[in-house]
Amino acid sequence: MKALTWQGTNDLSVEQTPDPAIRNEQDAIVKVSQTVTCGSDLHLLGGYIPFMRAGDVLGHEFVGEVVETGPRVERHKAGDRVVVCSFISCGRCWYCKQGLFSLCDNGNTNPGITEHLWGSAPGGCYGYSHALGGFAGSHAEYIRVPFADQGAFPVPDALDDTTALFASDSAPTGWMGADLGGVKPGDVVAVWGCGAVGQMAARAALLLGADRVIAIDPFRRPTGRPTRPRRRGPAG
Question: Distances from the Cα of 91 to the Cαs of 63, 115, 176, in angstroms?
Fold first, then answer.
């Protein structure tokens, strides 16, 4: 299959890579219909995240169609349209039971790396270095989804792929920001940054009851010489 791969700092390439296969009983294989670049992918591109290897497939926000499932996948079947959470979690460890899915004990297959670097191990994440599990990302034709019953969610027929795609990362990240900020009815909320996550945080604040949301973002004038209005001379 074709996939967008990391080859080095500021060096990406579309390459032929092996098709993913079922490795564990709770896996699913998803044919990617839409995948989007996250701002955090720029950290990988710039070489700021260690433990990337040449040929790693990028991407962790995606929606697609299930084409194959492992024998213990119960909630999905071939043909189902799903949106997949960017972090990989098992749904049954202590952290998952507390709702702290990004800290899952079983999502990251290389916890020793981050424990040594940062003193603790986050969960796994698609296409985000071998420090977070070394999982192939979504900028590809197909992707393996571990713990599919936990991390993949059915997309209602009424929603198109583009709308559903926001539920993979941007919408929950924005909601988390508003939730951790303690937004409550009647609040006036300021959101710095109007990218995808910032806009989702602003919308989440309104849904949580904020009376007013102020969005703050730099305004950059177009490059080039500014045009000036012409003055009219005296009549006649």
Answer: 20, 21, 19
Contact 87, 40 (CB under 8 A): no
pLDDT tens per residue, range 122-158: 999 999 999 999 999 999 999 999 999 999 999 999 9
Supply the pTM of this predicted model.
Answer: 0.86
2-168: CATH, from 3.40.50.300, 3.40.50.150, 3.40.50.1970, 3.90.180.10: 3.90.180.10
| The pairing of beta strand 188-192 with beta strand 212-216 | parallel
For 33-49, write each residue's pLDDT tens digit: 999 999 899 999 999 98
Q: Are 123 and 111 in contact (CB under 8 A)?
A: no
pLDDT one-digit tens code per residue, 68-80: 999 999 999 999 9
CATH 3.90.180.10 boundaries in the chain: 2-168
Q: Which residues are bridge partners to 152 per DSSP?
A: 84
